Amino acid sequence: MSKGGTVSELSWMTADQIGRAYRDGSLSPVDVVEGSLSRIEQVDSKINSMVTVTADEARLQAREAERAFRSGDDLPPLFGIPIVVKDLTDTAGVRTTYGSVAFSDHVPDTDAVTWSRLKAAGVILIGKTTTPEFGMLGVTDSKLTGTTSTPWDLSRTSGGSSGGSAAATAAGITPISWGSDGGGSIRVPASFCGTVGFKPTTGRIPTANSGEPDATEGPITRTVVDNALLLDVTVGRDARDRFSLPSTGERYADAARERGDLAGVRIGASVDLGYGPVDREVRRVFDAALDDLRSAGAVVEPVEIDLPDPIDYFLHYWGPEFIGGVAQLEALGADVWPVTREIAERAARLGVAEVSAAGRGTKTAIYNAFAVVLNDFDLLVTPTTPTPAFPHAGDVGGVAIVDGVAVDMPGLFFHHLTESPSHAGLPAISVPCGFTVDGLPVGLQIIGAALEDLSVVRAAARYEQATSWTSRRPVV
């Protein structure tokens, strides 16, 4: 290791810090990439976050990046920064398995829209991260890759379905990572792993040939500034996505770097969005986070919101997709997780009118319920998850009892605070807001009105500035 520092030191540098060090000559992309690869050797046998490691290609790109910096070229902010990418995102020429044994040797010919934009920004791919089959579980368990753990407690889940990306970044493998989110699959693992995860407004980040307005891709990082750097290079319209939005020229990283407080910001707060139970430690940490928001100048008031039961709505809205997904898995000769099969079986009992109503009237009602709250408040905050990371649950897929109450569908329950904002198409970010007495991270979900992504990023950054939670590191 050269003057750039030890592997341990490099592991906890942010992308923003690394980029500045590249430009003042105190750090080399070669050192940083070697640090990422060394970190994989140190920790990935414990957390199991990587599917494919692209070591040779990464080293080659690092040498090319080093030459580019030496030449004095004007390079993008993320140039030479190592990244890991969820294995649901197509990367041309790099194995992409979708978490499935049936696709264990699949190599796509084309890049996803987001990966093409990230490549153009000059990031260096270190590898692909674990995900459940086709993202169809709330935890990152797969017959192909096994079980992925949060770095804070190896006996507990990293969440899902972007659990590999969140675990890798939390463990210091790369400062930035890429995931996807349809009902919490970025925010839930961000909460369980103590990272920052953002689900933007529907259409803000495009997906080619998208037929699903509630699903998106997005960044997982250790700081809000790094999250914003990724947003800056991935937002904007693509003609292949009929839901995609044009770029408005907003600079997310500039907003995240602004120094300031939350004076005058009106924040509504709900610990459960009208549906409990919530773990007592999560409640305690959330209440303390509300005090931190007030100390930072925000006006915080409790609010009530009238939403449909999130688990019931999940079955009505996503259930038909699971029916098709189970059929596809069976056709491929792949095993089907019991949780996935239960969702498909419940959905098969629904009537056509019920499914149609979920995608039309009920979905509009969800949007309207949030709109009522966000008409009176600038932001809405909740815990990101009703529990901290729980012990690996195997076929059950989740925790069955929360605060002494048995929950329906344990494999879905812990996503119920993130599900509704997705169906409303709203921007929502999870930021670390404290720790349980057992040392497990808890996430604060900050939700904004449609198209108010910049406001969400700015508020998250100012909350982060007022606290010290992102400075804590797991011991792995």
Structure write-up:
By secondary structure, the protein is α+β, with helices and mostly antiparallel strands. The protein folds into two domains: 7-257, Amidase signature (AS) domain (Amidase signature (AS) enzymes, Alpha-Beta Complex), CATH 3.90.1300; 269-471, Amidase signature (AS) enzymes. The protein has 16 helices and 17 strands. It has helices at 7-11, 15-24, 29-47, 55-70, 113-120, 163-170, 187-193, 224-234, 252-257, 280-295, 310-331, 338-348, 352-376, 410-413, 416-423, 453-466, and strands at residues 50-53, 82-86, 124-129, 141-142, 146-147, 149-150, 153-157, 176-181, 196-199, 216-221, 266-269, 299-302, 379-383, 401-402, 405-406, 428-435, 441-448. The strands form four sheets. An eleven-stranded mixed sheet has the order 1-3-2-8-10-9-16-17-13-11-12. Helix 11 (310-331) crosses helix 13 (352-376). The longest helix has 25 residues, at 352-376. The radius of gyration is 21 Å and the shape is globular.
